Automatic annotation (TrEMBL):
The keyword Magnesium does not apply. Pfam families: HD_5, PAS_9. This is Putative PAS/PAC sensor protein. The keyword Nucleotidyltransferase does not apply.
Amino acid sequence: MAEDNHKLFKTALKQISKGIIITNDNNKIIFANEEAKKIKNISQTELIGKDITSVHPDDTQNKIKQIMNSLQQKNVNQFTTIIANQDNQEYLNTTYKLLENENNDYIGTMQILSDKTSQIKFEEEKAKSLHKLEKQVDTLNEQLQDLFISSMTSLVKTLEAKDSYTKGHSLRVCEIATKLAEHKHDVSTEIDKIKLAGKLHDIGKVGTQETILNKSSSLSDSEFNHIKQHPIMSEEILSPIERFKPITKMVRHHHERYDGTGYPDGLKQKEIPLGSRIVSIADSYDAMTSNRPYRSPMNPKEAVREIKENLGTQFDPELGKIFLELFYEGKIEE
Ligand SMILES: [Fe+2]
């Protein structure tokens, strides 16, 4: 009966779909089923009697010795690892189990092997494809955002071209704002954003009535309230695009005043984003020196005097001083 059971167990182990290798207490292989031989790509005769360490790839043998020692000393009951065969790029998942007799003496180990090569390669391919796809999406996203920026820039140009008074205004504001940002030493990472804010700050004027924009007489309260909506509109137009997120607040607040009496939110001093404080100076200087329907252009020196007189009220005094330095050094186009 015992012999029948022994045969039955052996047959079961032979037919099991996972690779099974059994070692004795000297780490010598005493049994290996068909699947184990297939996975190890080694014949029965070559396996039986061999030290278990020797049937592993050279660069993994130390690791296997450590595992076998841990099992022998009963530090662990089992250990699972994935062993990569560098020569043929195969991956083997192996669980090493401690075998004990009824007196709890170490009598050997059983290794359960499954070939993970195709699964791991599939995972690797999947990760590679995903990475490639992510890069493609990033590139497309960049292209889309570039396209959006150029469309917005064209829209601003078209808006300004319709009106001889504001033609080229945003580009000039962008240039002055960039110079100011470049001379403020701690904003180097912000320069690109400030540049864009300078270029697109008035895009919300697309929603302002032309009759009000071009009115040569003074504005009524309701007309002025209508004009005051354009920074909010600028923010709304730009906010759906991820790359514009850092500049939406810059455009929203370009008409705030340093003393808190500006619009749309009455922010004051450092509550106003740095980019807005910079654009505000550039915007005011260009507006003052340009021809407007309601007045003739101011002489640059007069405009600069106006800025100087309004440091601390309308303009950030520190940024205003940088602007004045740049102007006196001839770095601001008159
Ligand atoms: Fe504006």
